[in-house]
Every structure is written in structure tokens, then in C-alpha cells.
Amino acid sequence: MTITPLGYLFLLAVCVCSPLNRLLSPLIRPASRPLRRGARRYLPPMAFTTAQTAFALWTAWSCGMDVWGSVRIDYAVIACVALFLLITLGTLPFLWRHRSPAARKRIWELTPVTPSERLLWIGISVLVGLGEEIVYRAVAFNLLLMLTGSFALAGLISATVFGILHLRHGWVSVASAFVFGLGFQLMVAITGGLVAAIIAHALYDLAAGFQIGAWGKREPVTLEEGPAIPSR
């Protein structure tokens, strides 16, 4: 396995250009803009994730990289997924309360509310869970590992990039995505493959999206604040 020119291009695009673009972009869009609903809002992120995943797989092929590792679903995979979901979904209400009003609004715009949106959200959760784990925990991490020679440094850089890319949803999302990235990378190290990280990522996105969407239906959603957590 070697870093080809395509591998360097991938690192430049994913680990340098993408986070810089996020950091230099405005964090908050104008508050006067109406809340966006409807399935069409999912098309741009789905297209981007698909294209980025294809780029990652092409890069892995050019570098002779094994993306998947072990694909067995054994007790280690089940334990990692269960522990991750227990911690992350258990702390979801706490993290939601500590987000800024604008960040809550941005996140709620993405969550499913109608039956058709919920059905589409299942596919989106699988796509994002699969795609982002291939991009960040497999291809980016392995390229960084070859470049730095350090497992810890490669994991930290990959998780930092992953965190920064969630900046549009606020600094709480940046911090939580950074910790999630480290957790997913640890799952890969423990289980020897991407399966646990993909399953945990997809199930978290699915459950969190349904829960935040439900909060938005039960409580009034204002332009400025987004849904609050029901007190009852």
C-alpha cells in the first residue's frame, strides 16, 4: 500500500480544502430565512456524500488499500455498537439543550417530520453512515497513517477534520463529532473492520433524526430557536 498522486489529492481535498471551506464559511445564515422543509432539501447532501464516497473508493483502489477489513458481525461489533448508542443517545437531550438557538434551527431543518421524510431518512442514514466511515475512518485515516507513521496522530487529524465539517451546526456539534470520530476509529481498531463504525453511525443518525423531528412536532418551532425538548 502506497500513497499515489491521487492519494495526495484526496488528502488535500478532504483534510485541507473541506475544513478550510467550512471554517471560512458563515456559521449562521440570515435569521429571516424561512424554515426549509420537504424532501428536496436532502438531495444536495446525498449527492455530495455519494460523490465523496466514490472519490474515496477510487483513491483506495489506486493506493492498493483494503477499505473494509473484517466484515464479521461478532460479539465485539455488537458490544461496540451497543455501548456507543447507549452513551450518545443517552446524552442527546443534554447536548440539545446546550446548542445555540440558530444551531437547533439548522439541525431541525434536516430532520424528518412527515412519513415520506422518515422513509427517506432511513436511506440517508445508511448512506451517510457508510460513506463517511469509508472517507474518514478508512481512506483518510490510512493515508494519514502512512504519511505520519502515527496511529494516534492520524486518528486525531481525521477526527478533527470530521468535527470541523459539522461547524454549520454549532460548536457543540464540532466537539461531539470530534469525539464520535475518535470513537468510530477506536471501533475500527478493536474490531478490525468498518462494520461496527458503519452500523453505529447509521443507527445514531437514524435515531437522533427521528427524535429531534419528534421534538419539533410536539413543541412550537420558531424561526429563531428551533424545537425545545418537551418538559413532560
Describe this structure as you would to a colleague.
There is one protein chain. The protein contains nine helices and no strands. By secondary structure, it is mostly helical. It has a domain at 105-222. The chain starts with a helix and ends in a 14-residue tail after the last helix. Residues 28-32 have low confidence and may be disordered.
Mean pLDDT score: 88
> What structural category do the secondary elements indicate?
mainly alpha
How are helices and strands ordered from N to C? HHHHHHHHH
What spatial form do the alpha-carbon principal axes imply? globular
What is the terminal-to-terminal distance? 55 Å
Main sheet specs = none
Query: Count of DSSP E strands?
Result: 0
Note the beta-strand portion: under 5%
Uncertain residue ranges = 28-32
Radius of gyration: 18 Å
Secondary structure tally, helices = 9
- The percent range for helix content is over 70%
What's the topology here?
Elements: H1 5-24, H2 43-63, H3 75-90, H4 92-97, H5 101-110, H6 115-148, H7 151-164, H8 171-191, H9 195-218
Which labels suit this protein?
232 residues, mainly alpha, 9 helices
Structure summarized in a few sentences:
The termini are far apart.
